[in-house]
Specification:
By secondary structure, the chain is mostly helical. The chain folds into two domains: about 200 residues, SecY subunit domain (Preprotein translocase SecY subunit, Orthogonal Bundle), CATH 1.10.3370.10; about 230 residues, SecY subunit domain (Preprotein translocase SecY subunit, Orthogonal Bundle), CATH 1.10.3370.10. Helix 3 crosses helix 10, helix 7 crosses helix 8 and helix 12 packs across helix 15. The chain is globular and about 90 Å long. The strands form two sheets. The protein has a two-stranded antiparallel ribbon with strand order 1-4. A two-stranded antiparallel sheet has the order 2-3. The protein is about 70% helix and about 5% strand.
């Protein structure tokens, strides 16, 4: 079986791709859906003065608004119908995953198979609408308080009607993106939600690079610093690929058993444990937690209590307290999310049920303790890796005033989504070639 897979992998070429009609349809559908998404990021909300809004965002491009705009693919800076992007859906999905870990009701629902999964997805959609409604109202109130240097407001006619139309439009755009992401997952290639965020980040990259080069031309950013940033990008991407592919393979042995005159079993397998089990969830959730004070201030139109305004300034991007809290939250959520997705006791029980055991470790509780020990050590390394990658953009902004968020969650998403999409394309090609081999074998059998 291994030799057949290696042979198929060796035949992975452009010719095989040209014959995979189903894969080509999926790729074209994915590209078409992403084009629709990018067009939507340029459809503005009604009642907004685009010039004043651009002036406000240019003043705060390196702050929290810049971080929001990066995830939204520039849609927030243009205040388009996709201003919130798909972030409310991601937040709702994370909350549902946390609930399945702490709530017996949702735990039972998760174990209910396909029916339970559909219920969880439905609750996630409801949560998306609820979160998008609150965030959209916060944006509407926040925009009414936006003014440029001359005192002109970004909203032409502020009031209840503007807030209502803004909430309806933005929530509708978020729901459409949620539906579009699900369609890409079902009928396209890759994870639709991840690809939408990926497309937004990639679309803003040329403008960010052009701005960096312009700073180098005017002397605002030294040439040696630009070269260093590019080299650092290569190093970080290499590190992300290496870590995301790294595994700790725990050897699992199965005993021999005799049935009649034949001996079965006795083979050796392995249990793969990823170095970074939690993926990009910890940075995303940590960012959401740190941006909460800003959301509350926007919701109150900048008229919140003084302590809240002070706290928001202290945990602004680049501040020492922000860096400490950011690293602490990343480490916490790395361990918490890993505990959700991997249960050592359940895994040990499954191994014991099927007769598998780790050499030198007694089945049952001892195996669970051993897996927990190994996973804890891996998570320490994985959390440190996430923290270092996510702190890099803050260091670059403080030291060199780089005008975009290099590294961090954005680079993690870009690299991991690219790896996942390429793997899915490869699996589709392998499946197509397997089907071709099966058809040829059947034809030969009929001729014989």
């Amino acid at each position: 079986m291994a030799s057949a897979a290696e042979q198929l992998a060796a035949n992975f070429n452009i010719g095989a791709f040209s014959k995979a009609a189903e894969l080509k349809k999926r790729i074209w559908f994915t590209l078409g859906a992403l084009v629709v998404y990018r067009l939507g990021t340029y459809i503005p909300l009604p009642g907004i003065d685009a010039q004043i809004l651009q002036d406000v965002f240019s003043q705060q491009a390196g702050g929290i608004l810049g971080m929001f705009d990066m995830f939204a693919g520039g849609a927030l800076g243009r205040m388009s119908i996709f201003a919130l992007n798909i972030m409310p859906y991601i937040s709702a999905a994370i909350i549902m995953q946390l609930l399945t870990a702490v709530s017996p009701h949702f735990q039972a629902m998760k174990k209910d198979g396909e029916a339970g999964r559909k219920k969880i997805n439905q609750y996630t959609r409801y949560g998306t609408v609820l979160l998008a409604t609150f965030q959209a109202y916060g944006l509407a109130v926040g925009m009414e308080g936006m003014t440029d240097s001359t005192g002109a407001t970004a909203v032409i006619n502020a009031g209840l009607f503007f807030r209502a139309t803004t909430v309806i439009t933005i929530v509708g755009g978020t729901i459409f993106l949620m539906w579009l992401g699900e369609q890409i997952t079902q009928r396209g290639v890759g994870n639709g939600i991840s690809l939408i965020i990926f497309a937004g980040i990639i679309a803003e990259l040329p403008a960010a690079l052009a701005q960096t080069m312009e700073m180098g031309r005017t002397g605002a950013l030294p040439t040696i610093a630009i070269i260093g940033i590019l080299l650092l990008a290569v190093v970080v991407i290499t590190a992300i690929v290496f870590v995301e592919r790294s595994q700790r393979r725990v050897v699992v042995q199965y005993p021999k058993r005799q049935q009649g005159n034949k001996m079965f079993g006795g083979e050796s397998s392995h249990l793969p444990l990823k170095l970074n089990t939690s993926g990009v969830i910890p940075p995303i959730f940590a960012s959401s937690m740190l941006l909460l004070p800003f959301s509350i201030i926007s919701f109150s139109g900048g008229r919140g209590p003084e302590w809240l305004t002070t706290a928001s300034a202290m945990i602004g991007p680049g501040q020492p307290l922000f860096l400490v809290l950011f690293v602490g939250l990343i480490v916490f959520f790395a361990f918490f999310y890993t505990a959700i997705v991997f249960n050592p006791e359940e895994t040990a029980e499954n191994l014991k049920r099927y007769g598998g055991f780790v050499p030198g470790i007694r089945p049952g509780k001892n195996t669970a303790d051993y897996l927990d020990y190994v996973l804890t050590r891996l998570t320490v390394v994985g959390a440190a890796y996430l923290a270092i990658v996510c702190i890099i953009p803050e260091w670059l902004r403080n030291e060199f005033a780089v005008p975009f968020y290099f590294g961090g969650t954005s680079l993690l998403i870009v690299v991991t989504v690219t790896m996942d999409t390429v793997a899915q394309v490869h699996s589709h090609l392998l499946a197509h070639q397997y089907e071709g081999l099966i058809k040829k074998s059947r034809l030969r059998g009929r001729r014989g």
